[in-house]
């Protein structure tokens, strides 16, 4: 049995000494890596206890901040949050909801979302997230499949849109709307319920109790409900908090805090929100991801760490360079970016014992460029951000090194809904740029014979929800969950994800091609929004590319081009020349049979509304191939 870390195992900064993965080889290759847990598994209690434990231990500690109508932030103490959770839980009980009932939440990233989550658990309920951008059909399917008896929407419009479908939802007895004040009314209604009722309901919950049913994005078909227990979340967040102690337990400088803007409907944002409550890290919510709104919220809240997806970090970098280019400072920007990348790589080498670290000249160059560029990058994120937890897709070595050199440490991770978020993460003080890190403590990662990544650990879900089969259907009877992703482990147990098993292309010549590395590289180009690599059963590999409106606007201004509709740039020779150079650079990563021979520029971008992207921004390949069949066939003339 793995032995949890003890206080004697802590390093000088108060964090646990890194326990390196134990690796196993087969045929000369590392096929399995595991790291023992940093904390023992929870044997009793549930997520419902967290607000009340915080209120007991540190009643005056500010655990959340709530944005007001004027844009200002009001702190919420542990005692205040526990009181609000208790009142709302009693309101749900007063409305007749019983333990085990499912309650769906359809809202953006708001304070009410987190409040409802913990109140529902305190009442013994099971929460079911619904993306606020979901179609009526998608919403109805999730409500039907989960058997939800209640739905909380953010807006009256969302509730009204579901009106025609109510006849098909016999289980749905309650529909509450946040903007109509229904959450406050529920809390008032709870006055008729004794506190003891909530205490009793919390008391019967345990680590194995079902906490939530989270539906996958549905890239390959109808969404499936992942059954996550209270113990799954606690295994995940407890080990993440201990491992990422510079993020959650900073001993010096600003009080740890984060502004959450990724969807709480997605397990990544939800897991970190729970970790913040668990660690008593100040948590704020930003409902709008529109650049002006988010930048204003970041400036006002000034978080110390953030959650992000690679696409957002690419946009920050590309926008900064575009601003520099408009001001005639493109060359200094590129020099500063190069210094940051070399600095980040030198730090990595020192941490791995393969180099002395940044030399005197490199340190001087970084100091020179810090006020000119790096401080501006940090300023755009609020000014105090020093850590970013990044997931969703590979970030890439170049960008990770740049941010490290600019003074922002990136903790890149990998996981799925089925693993309650991260299954691997970059360890503090020992990053390996371009990988998704080591197994999270308490996790085992195995590479199957066909390259598929398999996972085992306390955070791996119980199974998929199937009301027709009596509730939960186990997905991995042998204890290893097949992720559907292809990856490899290096000699030290760092994992690199190379693609999706179902997305591996096999050309007519029999060459296996993983599209993800090419797609991720091209998506980082400032003129490219989305990219899909194709070639299954075809004589060669091609790509469908969509244009980034902001990038194109900047390129047009810098090249003296008049504004034209996006669809007129599909065959523009200058645009094609720029894109061809980007494709040529991407092709340097792969062999010739795997390289992109031809590409087509599409007249529109992929959107969730058109059915081309999931709510978590992953492409739905089948829908794209069907809707742009003419462009696909044009890449393969007969």
What does this structure look like?
This is Acyl-CoA synthetase. The chain has 638 residues and is α/β, with parallel strands linked by helices. The chain has 20 helices and 28 strands. A hairpin with a 5-residue loop joins strand 22 (481-489) and strand 23 (495-500). It is globular, with a radius of gyration of 25 Å. The relative contact order is 0.10.
Keywords:
28 strands, 20 helices, 5-stranded mixed β-sheet, 638 residues, 6-stranded antiparallel β-sheet, alpha/beta
* Helix and strand composition category: alpha/beta
Calculate the terminal CA-CA distance, rounded to whole Å.
61 Å
Cross-sheet strand order for the largest sheet: 1-2-18-19-22-23
Low-confidence stretches are 1-12
Large-scale geometry:
globular
Strand content: 15-25%
Radius of gyration: 25 Å
Instruction: Give the oligomeric state of the chains in this entry, treating copies of one chain as homo and distinct chains as hetero.
Output: single chain
The overall pLDDT, averaged over residues, is: 91
Number of discrete helical segments = 20
**What profile does the largest beta sheet have?**
6 strands, antiparallel
Instruction: Tally the beta strands.
Output: 28
Write the layout of secondary structure elements.
Elements lengths: L21 E5 L2 E7 L14 H8 L4 E6 L5 E5 H17 L7 E5 L4 H12 L3 E5 L5 H11 L3 E4 L2 H6 L12 E4 L4 H8 L5 H9 L6 E6 L9 E5 H14 L1 H4 L8 E4 L6 H13 L2 E4 L5 H11 L3 E4 L1 H17 L3 H22 L8 H21 L6 E4 L6 H9 L3 E8 L4 E5 L12 E2 L3 E5 L4 E6 L5 E4 L4 E3 L7 E9 L5 E6 L4 E2 L5 E2 L1 H9 L4 E7 L6 E7 L1 H10 L14 H15 L8 E6 L19 H7 L1 H6 L4
